[in-house]
Write a structure and sequence with these properties.
Helix content: over 70%
Radius of gyration: 23 Å
Subcellular location: Membrane
Distance between the termini: 67 Å
Protein name: Major facilitator superfamily (MFS) profile domain-containing protein
Organism: Urochloa decumbens
Number of strands: 2
Structural class: mainly alpha
Keywords: Membrane, Transmembrane, Transmembrane helix, Transport
Membrane topology: Multi-pass membrane protein
Largest sheet: 2 strands, antiparallel
Order of helices and strands: EEHHHHHHHHHHHHHHHHH
Strand content: under 5%
C-alpha cells in the first residue's frame, strides 16, 4: 500500500516512550529498528561486523612502525643514521594527512548513501594501497601509497555510527567499546605482524630465500597478510545490513525516528528543534560534540606520537638512548599488550563505564598516563629479564588507559547528535583526529 507520494505505508506502528515508532517497507534502517524492538538481546552478528571492519582499518595504520626504521634505511633516503627518524615521521604522517582531507566528506556520504557503501569502498582501498605500500621501491612511492590509503579509507567514522545504530540503548557502551577494542588491538596486532613478518629472508632463511620475491621485497609479507584479511572482510560485507533510514519521512515519521533516539539528543537541542522539524543544529554549535572532539584530537596526537616513538625508541641503539630491541622483540611486547586489551575491554571496561561514566573514567585514565610516560626513559638503565617484564607491564597499562579515553570520547560524540547527523559528526571528528595524528609522527620523529 502506498501513500500519495508513492511511498510505502508503515508496516507497523508501536508506541515507545513519548514517541510513535513507524517502520516503512523497503527501508533498511526501519528493518534494523524492527529487529532491535523484537530482540532485546545483544546483536552478536552485527557486532562481529563492527569488530572485523574496525580491525581491518586499524591494522594497516600501525603495521609499518616496527619495520619503518629499516625500510627508510634500505631506501637510502637518509644520509645519516640519526636522520632515519626524521624521514620515517613523514611516511607515518602521510596516511593521517590523507585521511584528514577526506574524513568529513566520507561521513557526509555515509549519511546520504548509507554506511555500507562507504565501508565497502574503504575496505577495497585497504586491499589495493596497503599491498602497493609493501611493494614500495622508493621513498616517494611509500609516501604516495600511504597518502592514498588514508584519503580513500573512510571506514572508522561510519562504523562508529553503525555500532550505535545496530543495538539498543543499553548495549551502546559495549558497541563502542568493541570499536575502540578492535581499534586498539589492531594498533597492537598490526605492529606485531610487522615485527614478526618483516624481512622474512633474514629472520626465516630456511623458508624464504634472499633471491625469492619476499627477499627482494622484504616488507611485503606483513602488508600481504593484512590485505588478505581485508579481502575476507570485504567478501563478508556482502551480508552486512544497512542501518540508514532511506525514506522521506512525514512529520509523524520524523517524530517516530527521533523517538527511537531520544536518549541520544541533548535536551536543549530538542527545545531548539521543536519549532521546526526540518531545522538541524549546526555541528559546530553543538558544544557537547565539539568538546568531545577537542579531547579526542588532543589525545590522538599523544597516542600516535607514542605509538611511533615506542617502536623507534625500542629499536634504537642504547648509545642513542634506546633499548637495542629487534623488530621481533617489539612485536612480542605489542602482542602481549593486544591480548590484555581484549580482556580489559570485554570484561572490565563496561563495568567501569557503568560505575564512573565515560567522562570520569576518561579523566582518571588521562591522569594515570602521566606518571607511566615519565617512567619510560628510566627503563634504559634496566637489564634483562627485568627490562622485558617492566616494559610489558608499562605497555599493558598505558594502552588500556588509552582505549578507556578513546571509548569515552566515542560514546560522548555519538550521543551528542541524532542519526541523520551521526556520519557527518564522526567524519568531522576523524578530520580533526587525522590532522593531529598527521602532525604527531612527523613531530615525534623529528624530536
Amino acid at each position: 500500500m502506498e501513500d500519495a507520494e508513492g511511498q510505502s505505508a508503515p508496516l507497523l506502528e508501536k508506541k515507545a516512550g513519548g514517541g510513535r515508532m513507524m517502520y516503512v517497507e523497503g527501508c533498511p534502517g526501519c528493518a534494523v529498528d524492527r529487529r532491535k524492538a523484537a530482540n532485546p538481546g545483544i546483536p552478536y552478528g552485527s557486532f562481529i561486523y563492527v569488530w572485523i571492519v574496525t580491525l581491518c582499518t586499524a591494522l594497516p595504520i600501525s603495521s609499518l612502525f616496527p619495520f619503518l626504521y629499516f625500510m627508510i634505511r634500505d631506501l637510502n633516503v637518509a644520509k645519516r643514521t640519526e636522520d632515519i627518524g626524521f624521514y620515517a615521521g613523514f611516511v607515518g604522517a602521510s596516511f593521517m594527512f590523507g585521511r584528514c582531507l577526506t574524513s568529513t566528506a566520507w561521513g557526509i556520504a555515509a549519511d546520504r548513501i548509507g554506511r555500507k557503501p562507504v565501508v565497502v569502498f574503504g575496505i577495497f582501498s585497504v586491499v589495493v594501497f596497503n599491498t602497493l605500500f609493501g611493494l614500495s621501491v622508493s621513498y616517494w612511492m611509500a609516501i604516495a601509497t600511504r597518502f592514498l590509503l588514508g584519503a580513500l579509507n573512510g571506514l572508522l567514522g561510519p562504523i562508529k555510527a553503525y555500532a550505535i545504530e545496530v543495538c539498543r540503548p543499553e548495549h551502546e557502551a559495549l558497541a563502542l567499546s568493541l570499536v575502540s577494542t578492535a581499534w586498539g588491538i589492531g594498533l597492537i596486532i598490526g605492529p606485531a605482524l610487522g615485527g614478526y613478518l618483516a624481512m622474512p629472508a633474514e629472520n626465516f632463511p630456511n623458508v624464504f630465500s634472499p633471491d625469492s620475491f619476499f627477499g627482494r621485497f622484504p616488507y611485503f609479507l606483513p602488508c600481504l597478510c593484512t590485505s588478505v584479511f581485508a579481502v575476507v572482510v570485504l567478501i563478508s560485507c556482502i551480508w552486512m545490513p544497512e542501518t540508514l533510514h532511506k525514506h522521506k519521512g512525514s512529520e509523524n515519521e520524523n517524530q517516530s525516528i527521533e523517538g527511537l533516539e531520544a536518549h541520544l539528543i541533548d535536551p536543549k537541542e530538542k527545545v531548539e528543534e521543536s519549532g521546526s522539524l526540518n531545522t538541524k543544529k549546526s555541528l559546530f554549535k553543538n558544544w557537547p560534540l565539539m568538546s568531545s572532539i577537542i579531547v579526542y584530537c588532543i589525545f590522538s596526537f599523544h597516542d600516535m606520537a607514542y605509538t611511533e616513538v615506542f617502536s623507534l625508541w625500542a629499536e634504537s641503539d642504547k648509545k642513542y638512548g634506546g633499548l637495542s630491541f629487534s623488530s621481533e622483540d617489539v612485536g612480542q611486547v605489542l602482542a602481549v599488550t593486544g591480548a590484555s586489551l581484549l580482556a580489559y575491554q570485554l570484561f572490565l571496561y563496561p563495568r567501569i563505564n557503568k560505575i564512573l561514566g565515560p567522562i570520569n573514567s576518561s579523566r582518571i585514565a588521562a591522569i594515570l598516563c602521566i606518571p607511566i610516560l615519565f617512567a619510560y626513559p628510566y627503563m634504559t638503565y634496566l637489564s634483562e629479564p627485568g627490562l622485558s617484564i617492566i616494559l610489558n607491564i608499562a605497555s599493558v597499562i598505558k594502552n588500556n588507559l588509552s582505549v578507556t579515553i578513546i571509548t569515552g570520547t566515542f560514546i560522548l560524540q555519538n550521543n551528542a547528535v541524532p542519526q541523520d547527523q551521526r556520519g557527518a559528526a564522526n567524519g568531522l571528528s576523524m578530520t580533526g583526529q587525522s590532522l593531529f595524528k598527521a602532525v604527531a609522527p612527523a613531530g615525534a620523529g623529528i624530536v
